[in-house]
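Please check these two lines:
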Amino acid sequence: MKLKVLAFARYKEQLGFTEAEMLLPDPPTLSELLKQPCFAALPKDALLAVNQKFVNDSETLYAGDEIAIMPPVSGG
């Protein structure tokens, strides 16, 4: 199953990509995606979105989903 993963802000440099396609066995969850070696250094407080909706790591993924990984934001 092919997924599109987007990295934002400081995570682009940390993960080494802005946009990547990942292949995973069916049916994966977001937590299974994050077990991939390229995400090993990703902080636990990263914000996760699937198809532009914030989710937790138990979210089931489907072919063609777009996953966004971004740092937490703070207001002032």
